[in-house]
Amino acid sequence: MTVTGNQKPAWAGEDLLSKCVNLLIHTKPLYALMKRQARQVLIKTAEKNGISWRQTHEQLAASDIHTLLPTLTNPEIGYPDYYQVPFHAYDAGNLCWQAAFEAESATYAMALRVWPQESLTWQAAQARLRSSFHQVLSDYITGPVQD
Question: Where are the domains of the chain?
Answer without folding.
Answer: 14-69+79-138
